[in-house]
Amino acid sequence: MSTSTPSKIIPTRTLYDFHGGIHPEEMKSLSNQTAITQAPLPPKLILPLQQHIGNPSLVIVEIGQRVLKGEKLADADGKISVALHAPTSGIIDCIVDHPIAHPSGQSAPCIILIPDGKDEWCELNPCEHFEHLSVSEIQNKVRESGIAGMGGAGFPTEVKLHPPHQDKVATLILNAAECEPYITADDRLIRERAEEVVQGMEIMAYALQPGECLIGIEDNKPEAIAALREAVKETQIEVCVIPTKYPSGGEKQLIKILTDKEVPNGQIPADISVMCQNVGTAAAVYRAIRFGEPLISRITTLTGEAIQQPGNVEVLLGTPIDWLLSQYGYQESKAQRLIKGGPMMGYTLTHPHTPIVKTSNCILAPTHKDLPLPPLAQACIRCGLCAQACPAELLPQQLYWFSRSQEYDKAEHHNLFDCIECGACSYVCPSAIPLVQHYRHAKGEIKQLKLDQQKSDQARERFEARQFRLDREKSEKEAKRKARAEAAAKAQAAKKAAESAKPVEASQNTKEQVDTKKASIQAALERNQAKKAVQAPETKAQAKVEPIDIEALETAWDKAQAKLDKMHDALENAIVNTPEQVEKLTRAVEKNQVRVNQAKQAWEQAYKLETTAPVPAQKETISTKPDESKPDAPKPDINALKVAQEKAQSKLDKMQDALDNAQPEQVEKLTRAVDKNKVRVQAAEQALNEASQAETSQDGKN
Amino acid sequence: MALLTLSSPHAKGPQRTSVMMRWVIAMTLPGLLMQTLFFGWGNLHNVLWCTLVAVICEASILKIRKRPIAFYLNDYSAIVTAVLLGLALPPFAPWWVSLVATAFAIIFAKHIYGGMGYNPFNPAMVGYALVLVSFPVAMTTNWATPLSLVDQPASFLDTLQIIWGQVPAQSSMVDALTGATPLDTYKHEIAHSLSETVLENPIFGTGFSLGWEWVNAAFLAGGLVLLALKVIPWQTPVGLLAGLAIPSLLLGHDADQTTPLVIHLTSGATMLAAFFIATDPVTSCTTTRGRLVYGFGIGLLTYIIRNHGSYPDAIAFSVLLMNFAAPFIDVYTQPRTYGYIDAKRGPKAKEAKEKN
Description:
heterodimer, A: alpha/beta, Rossmann fold, 6-stranded mixed β-sheet, 4-stranded antiparallel β-sheet, 18 helices, disordered N terminus, B: mainly alpha, 17 helices, globular, disordered C terminus
């Protein structure tokens, strides 16, 4: 992979430029004169569960548990997430909402760890030669080591070690530009640990197999450049020295400088086959693979005139910022504000008692002289200095006018969302207008408007769907009503026709009219059949109607039988105890007996009706349904009838067995059940015989 | 002490509006010096008088508008307007002409619109155009003859007396001191003479414009310094001079028919307009490409009005006409933003395809 003679001629790569940019005072000498120091062990560590872009980590330890240095405290949750590890050995005190370093000053869930002072490492998994690991092993190790982008964004590094869309990465870039004033963390890291940085880049290159590897560094760091050039001697990595200009450390701008490619609007560098990583991240990757050390500390610049001992410190993650500053001579009386990050893009801290996280690259404590309060804003004179400075080639003064007049659609049309909020426009504005604040406000308003629009769209859709459903139900009801009216009219006509056409059945009817229940049952059956005939000749529907009636009849029979039994008991009781009621009860018993018989009969007939196929040629005595109700009934399905008969037979056998094994009080019930099933079997057999007869006669006809 | 909570960015560059305005004023001084040397005390007096009027008017208006007076006066924009008017108006123009021009410029062309930054028209040019149209005689008969051509140059007191009306306008003294400008002369003479004959007029000095050439050279020098300091953008002056030069070269190359380019460039308020008047940031275009178009438009209109209009020097009208067009030009000259293939030109341009 790397074979070259030591005296290699360094090729000069063509560098391009991005539009605009400013040259603020660098103020780097305040903190880059001294070597990196180790921050002492703090009394408490506050570890937010989200120090990265993506899902917060899931806690896997318990309160009171003792953990070792480097032990995993929280797992990565999902694809875009990283793990969290204990920066030192100690006891988990609690897991609570604690203020974190964020522009809003909000709290977030944090693990509070109390160090025990022993700083005991857990078992690590080093690997001397990373080439022996597979690419996926390396990716897993990086994910499990909790490494996220340490330049300030905090994007999970493991995700960036997967080639995009299964394509090759053309260019892997390490961002060593560090263009913001005051910050020198990357500068000192490279000066002292260039080997680690370069090895880390080699590991990343092993995973991504890029076409070329570049390190972009500004020319205001000569010692770091020399150290890098020394470290890359045996490799294919190219060190590109770019002119000092803010914001050349911005990912998009650096890519433009080194490759002349622009990241298209709405896309990420991976879409143009470029991967960008911070040097601190590269060093962390090296330590994770080579020594198995998870990400538990980082280099942070402490600078500003309010700090007596400014410089770079290697600080454990979770160290409270106020405690850390007090260790380095922070003079609260002199401090005007505390900034996390640099003076151009950093945000002020509302609570100093917040932790250092994976993305804290600088804590700036300026005095009034360092960063004076901005002057009062005047009117915009449309001088265009902001447009000249904008690295995204926007028209900041137009965006400003639109933001103020709340013409958000015009602001969006002028590419408001392409603003990277670098602050160059506000820096140069002669009228001291806080331009970036206006853009942030406008962006927030536009997002809120879009959310509201989405909500109202959804509400409108639901409303329309509901209207549609109500209208449909209404029309269906209307149709049903009409159909019912027609059916009633037809039923009337059919009834009249049936009565006049069949006198035989009429005499049968009179005999059965003694049994009022039977008549009503049969009338109901007729109505059902008439209705179904009018709507659609669906015999299935008819079949559906009849089982319901059969079940109703069955329950009626059971009820009648139960009542009869009760009456029997009462009679026996009366015979013994109250002889004067015996006559009454005897009559009641007789009545109930009649009822039971009637119910039984009704059920039997209904059952026969169900199992017997309705063949127009046959006139069944029990069936009084009008023949014209079934003009096109299907032929009896012999197989179905066979199956029905077999089913009934098996059920009967089961009942017989149950009866034989029954307890005495269940005997009566089971006897009844057996009788029922016997009737069923008989009816099924009859139906089968009739059907087979019909078929043979049909076949004979054909 | 409580920590401040402020929003990024926290650093501020050295540029300030009042500083820029003061540089503009400072860089007119060489031109003013040349005017005094060649044409007498008139311009200096007018500059001072207009400044006084401007400051009083602005303070009064700010009081009426209930604004903090010192804060707004400190941006020096009123003084810039006054200085430009003082330089542009004829040296012997009566005091009330300067008064009307300045007062109208400050009150109506600036504060009625909302003050500095909100006015669509260049206030100095609005004032100038107003008096040019309202008082044509006063504005055309009060130009000074170069001192070297006058037997008895006016002293400071004489100038004061003329301006303040102590001396009647038709008097012989005033007659001796005032005369037509080179542009005026050439335009009227060339209709019935040849170029060589016209140029023999002593007002043209060594073939350019006596006195005026030095004034324009001084304004050019001042303008170049402003360019180097990045107080003004280069697109507007270059556009204006190109807009004047290109039609002149193409159409007016025959010196026997029209005023030649060299007279255009060295006479009148050409350089003053290019570097000081047209570059007024509030009323010019905001996009860089738009500024080229804007400047070119002013130059072209100046050429047309000078040659075919009835006014000898047309800067005021050209600037005002292009002020009308500036927002429209802005809409159609937006730059291409990073990450897009094409610029979104026009009010509702379709989404540009992404650059790949």
